[in-house]
Amino acid sequence: MSSAYLQFDQVSKIFPGVKALNGVSFEARAGQVHGLLGENGAGKSTLLKILGGQYRPDGGRLVVGGQERHFSSAADAIAAGIAVIHQELQYVPELTVAENVLLGRLPQRFGFVNKAAARQLVRTRLAEIGVDLDPDARLMDLSIAQRQMVEICKAVLQDAQVIAFDEPTSSLSHRETEVLFKLVADLRAQGRTLIYISHRLEELYTLCDACTIFRDGRKVATHPVMAEVPRETLISDMVGRELNDIYGYRARPLGDERLKVTGLHGAALREPLSFSVRSGEVLGFFGLVGAGRSELMRLLYGADPRSQGQVALDGQVVSPRGPSAAIDAGIVLCPEDRKEQGILAESSVAENINISCRRHELLGGLFLRHRKEAARADAFIRRLRVKTPNREQEIRLLSGGNQQKVILARWLAEPGLKVLILDEPTRGIDVGAKNEIYQIIHEVAESGCCVIVISSELPEVLGISDRVIVMREGRISGELSRAAASETAVLSLALPDMQTQATAQAITA
Amino acid sequence: MNTLTTPSSSSTSPSTSTASDRPAMNSKHRAWLNEHSMTLGYALLFVVLAFSVENFFSAANIVGLMLSVAQIGMVACTMMLCLASRDFDLSVGSTIAFSGVLGAIILERTQSVGLAIGGGLLAGALIGAGNGVLIAYLRVNALIATLATMLMVRGLAFIVSKGQAVGIADESFISFGDTRLFGLPLPVLVAAACFVVFGVLLNHTVFGRNTLAIGGNPEAARLAGVKVEKLRVWIFLLQGVVTAMAGLILASRITSGQPNSAQGFELDVISACVLGGVSLLGGRARIFGVLIGVLIMGTVENVMNLLDVDAFYQYLMRGLILLAAVLLDQLKTRGAARR
Amino acid sequence: MNTLTTPSSSSTSPSTSTASDRPAMNSKHRAWLNEHSMTLGYALLFVVLAFSVENFFSAANIVGLMLSVAQIGMVACTMMLCLASRDFDLSVGSTIAFSGVLGAIILERTQSVGLAIGGGLLAGALIGAGNGVLIAYLRVNALIATLATMLMVRGLAFIVSKGQAVGIADESFISFGDTRLFGLPLPVLVAAACFVVFGVLLNHTVFGRNTLAIGGNPEAARLAGVKVEKLRVWIFLLQGVVTAMAGLILASRITSGQPNSAQGFELDVISACVLGGVSLLGGRARIFGVLIGVLIMGTVENVMNLLDVDAFYQYLMRGLILLAAVLLDQLKTRGAARR
Amino acid sequence: ADPIKIGFLVKQAEEPWFQDEWRYAEQAAKEKGFALVKIGVPNGEKMIAAIDNLAAQKAQGFVICAPDVKLGVAVERAAKRNNLRVMSVDDQLVDGAGKPIASIPHMGISAYEIGKQVGNGLAEEIKQRGWNMAEVGALRMAFDQLPTARERTQGAVDALKAAGFPAANLVDAPQAKTDTESAFNAANIAFTKQAKFKHWVAFGMNDEAVLGAVRAAEGRALREDAVVGIGIGGSQTALNEFAKPKPTAFYGTVLISPKRHGYETVLMMQQWIASGQAPAAVTLTTGTLMTRRNQDAVRKQMGL
Ligand SMILES: Nc1ncnc2c1ncn2[C@@H]1O[C@H](COP(=O)(O)OP(=O)(O)OP(=O)(O)O)[C@@H](O)[C@H]1O
Ligand SMILES: Nc1ncnc2c1ncn2[C@@H]1O[C@H](COP(=O)(O)OP(=O)(O)OP(=O)(O)O)[C@@H](O)[C@H]1O
Ligand SMILES: O[C@@H]1[C@@H](O)[C@@H](O)CO[C@H]1O
Ligand SMILES: [Mg+2]
Ligand SMILES: [Mg+2]
């Protein structure tokens, strides 16, 4: 086997109020995929930002290919053969796929961009790695998944020796994930040094040769042979406690039909859609990327204009005309894209939690109750184990997963809840917190609410739902009870018609 | 209704926020410095000037200084909200002129101070609401929309006054500009009241918080139930009313409604806000910063006049001092910056 | 060399982009409309005016119109870059005045046209680079930084000229302002050249694409290895040089360097850009749009004078037409917008 | 007693005219040994602030050219409040109803009168050249937003009419701003509209406006033999034109003496403060038409 190509030696990074990395050392070998795991806020992304030249470490050394390196900018890291795919996607929405992929190194002649060459280059290389994207499409016109794929291609096409992936699959679904896995395997075969961060253990087992586990900015353990590490060890290393059944599903008696959606139609759907949810029910929505799940829920929530259809709650037509009307009716939606639709980046953690639910407790309908708000914020920070120095920290300074927790808290804090819609709620969230969120989902359901969970993680959908609706290309392609919802059954409903059952089985296997 | 609002006790597991104490202290200090550096800077400047510039630290001069920034101060309060919500308003200068002219004309025709003030404020409200509707509902770019209103309102001011200053004879109206209470002229007290009211509005009400929210991320705010469009209209409407009030006060101080007054006023107000740390990209505003920004602007001018600085060199000095102020502010945030 | 060059078989599975063809067609149409609606609108306006306004469609008037927007046009080209990179420049008006004055003074002292032009351009370059350094490296807010330079440079213009217009006697320098080539005055040709050069720069060079990138997402650009700070300085430097050129041309047209010329010029230029679809939030710019924006501004003024519109009503009309232009533009993007 | 300190407030500090006024006032201050404070007051608000500021620095009186004559009452009140003596220069202050304020002494010439001198100068030159008035267009460079600008041009119009100039031949060219380029653009359009005139006369609020008209005329091959422009101010802008090797259509400018206005007003004020002797209620000065030919003589006569 090759020797360690990349070495972190006692690397530390301190932010105001947070010791993000505290003397971390480990090595990654060429021709291997080295997994990084750890709770939200454990310091994984910070490490990659140091590797990518975005941050300078406050202590320690970085050795690449036997040479000690000190990067003062991202450009330095790129020059040293390092490519990083960051957790927060970093693309230019107004530029095309080709321009984004080649940003910083557009092919040129006397300063002029050789557009044809750029387009051609990107088209062929994308085809080679099996990604089907139009090089001329602008990023702003693509779905998040597609943007994520562009980011991946940008890094991969740098032909760097070291490639680091920070939760690349968090916004991908099966199709792209499959492409990505193939890509990672190919890169490994070429002898590249790969670092791979994910909260999905299955994924890590599939891809990684070795792994290092972080907790609170420290390295807890390095396991040189991934396959030999039991799942329980990983979890307890990471969370500091045992977790048996992370879904913690509890059967519960379902009440009457509470939410009824009839003939809802809007821009991204192919036909009017109808479904209903019973009181106390957790309804899972599964589908491939672009299947229209988010779109459907946005129509329900009034976030996008609907062309027809109605929404009834407890037998009364509510059909909200906008999010604020929906919230007043007791319907809330936790959106899928936390950066664009979720966080108020400049505001504090407390503010992000209280923004909506505070309206129930105002003095004279106008003035805030600071103490109540602070108490609520602190309670959720504790309960969801949000890693933040205090509730006044700006949310943008939190790690990705912790931001997600804060946004979830915003909706869980809602007192008049009747329908809770969660769009990819556990995206980027660690196992421990996932478990906590599933607990809350069950609690909410037990209190008589309807819970709708959109997820692209099949095990998750199957693990927590009483019933699963599967969507495909803007239509509902099927509905399965918990008992009937096997992976194969769900996938065969989700995949395009021409795909055979066999493919579904192949993926599941 | 459910247990969610009172988080369960199971969650008390020994805290995830493990930050050691030292850096936390550090960050508190830094945050404090961050919050107050401008104020400290201004205080320092003030002390230095008090000792070095003759006549600066006298009751008469300080009152004069405050009076000179009273209008800017009032409008800066609402401009702060406007910028905080990621908007922009170029029409305030024209609105000042128009409301002053209109008030003077109404006063001339009806002899009623009440009608004059009411008319002026109503005009301001309509202009503001118009801006708001254009920007929030018709989605016109704020720069262009308020540039258009700026032109139109200025035109109206000229048209209704036939381009002439409209004299004001009413004693009670005029006296508003120079009556003193507790030694302070009324305009200064009104400006102070604005700072208090809008400070409370920004920090202690839903209105203020939602304003920051739509400035920080309009889409997220909308999905969180904020009625973005309505709020925007309200912000502009408020801005219009306060600006009209400033216009009426100015008219009373200069005993006439002047259709060409307050040209370039918008830039002064926006600059004061930005100097006070309000972000043009929205989502960030501090009323105290705005107050300091306004005072800096006023002090610079005051001192240059006290020192009899040549008109041409005043340009140079004003530029230099602006730069010095932001650079100072920059210096201390340097460490705190991302890298 | 590796498997990457031999496409893996599994990857031929049909696409991650599931958008059907119909909407794609639709979106092409829409994009086209989006791209050209302003142009179509202007073309329509032009034809209507040509038929309805006497003297409008005459060679003399069209040339006059173009001449009246030549300076704005030149500077709008670089302002477009500046806005596209999410910056802002208020100092252009002062730079026009200063470079004109400086050029005139140098000419007076040395009688050398070359030195005068060189000196003016160099001054512009320095002012621009100064802005760039302040903003890119010292991270001063662009509004405040360029406001400060605006004041300082205006002050310098007054100081070096002692507040007086500086006469230009040199025939060859003056003739630049009114020489005609192919029936078009040189300033118009220079402006046209600017549009071509900066259009190419924006769309076909790495410089231009990186400019859009840092405006669209500075962090992404930096992470991709773009030298953001350096690029910013270059953009401002270019802006300074082009503005100085405009100032020299203006001086040659009015046969003197006037220290108080071009006040408020910055707002005109920025408005023309925004009207032409350049986003103040960066990342979006089209040279053609800017051209149309500049022409709209010039045409409105031209036509109002041709029609003898009263000065006071001109304000009203200018505002209304600005609004009409953006509302029209808004209407068609309505459907396309995400909302 | 405190040393004498006198303020000199002017509406457009950047204008050469006011720079000159200040310079001569400074000269007087130096000669007589009192302090002079010069402040630019571009608008009413700044004007009030400046008066307060003067009081704060213990001045005893000030001379002012206010941004608008209707600010008279405001000036009067601010002066009274601060216990300052005040006299006006250049533009006479009026009250809300438009009547001159008696309690404020004045030295100057009315804007309308300057304008009339321009008009008379133009009429005279038309006669000199033997032009047929029916073939002459009169270009009024208009900036009616500014009261003085309107009054000046109105004076010129009235004088031309009085000399028999046909009202129908008056052409307005509204400037968007007060600079030369705006004047150029406005004049250009006016020439386009009114191609029928063989000859032109041009006037405006200042030298810059007329210069714009002259340059625009040259662009249409209308030169010094076909156009007569007379400006106001006698600024460097005008002198530059006169200094050109060949005469241009910038025929002349009405010069008023900044020396008298600057020097004499502060002296009057000093007298007032020192000995309580108030200046005459109104002192009128006159303007003189200065042309290429008589420029040296006129400037000498004005003490420049
Ligand atoms: N710029 C910053 N300023 C202040 N604190 C920061 C900053 N960047 C990161 N942190 C803090 O450093 C810690 C580590 O963050 P990091 O993003 O590395 O976590 P992570 O392991 O990637 O978590 P996740 O799984 O949620 O992505 C967190 O507590 C985070 O809040
Ligand atoms: N920002 C966007 N711009 C253009 N089209 C979009 C955008 N977002 C989604 N779409 C399109 O809308 C349709 C439905 O997307 P939607 O996001 O609702 O799917 P989804 O099932 O929720 O998938 P995902 O897992 O990506 O959230 C798809 O055709 C998708 O390509
Ligand atoms: O403003 C003018 C000034 O320019 C000078 O011409 C004298 O009179 C004043 O009214
Ligand atoms: Mg992370
Ligand atoms: Mg979705």
From TrEMBL, chain A:
Spans through the membrane: none
An example Gene Ontology molecular-function term: ATP binding
Annotated Pfam families: ABC_tran
Keywords associated with the record: ATP-binding, Cell inner membrane, Cell membrane, Membrane, Nucleotide-binding, Repeat, Sugar transport, Translocase, Transport
Signal peptide boundaries: none
Domain ABC transporter as annotated: residue spans: 6-241, 254-498
CDD domains (UniProt xref): ABC_Carb_Monos_I, ABC_Carb_Monos_II
NCBIfam families in alphabetical order: PRK11288.1 (NF008442)
Name this polypeptide is given: L-arabinose ABC transporter ATP-binding protein AraG
Organism: Roseateles koreensis
Lineage start: Bacteria, Pseudomonadati, Pseudomonadota, Betaproteobacteria, Burkholderiales
TrEMBL record, chains B, C:
NCBIfam families linked: PRK11285.1
Top-level lineage group: Bacteria
CDD domains: TM_PBP1_transp_AraH_like (cd06579)
Compositional bias (Low complexity): 1-18
Name by which UniProt lists this protein: L-arabinose ABC transporter permease AraH
InterPro entries: ABC_transp_permease
Membrane topology: Multi-pass membrane protein
Transmembrane segments annotated in the record for this chain: 32-53, 59-83, 90-107, 113-135, 142-161, 181-202, 231-251, 263-281, 288-306, 312-331
Organism: Roseateles koreensis
Localization, UniProt: Cell membrane
Principal cellular location given in the protein's record: membrane
Keywords of this entry: Cell membrane, Membrane, Transmembrane, Transmembrane helix
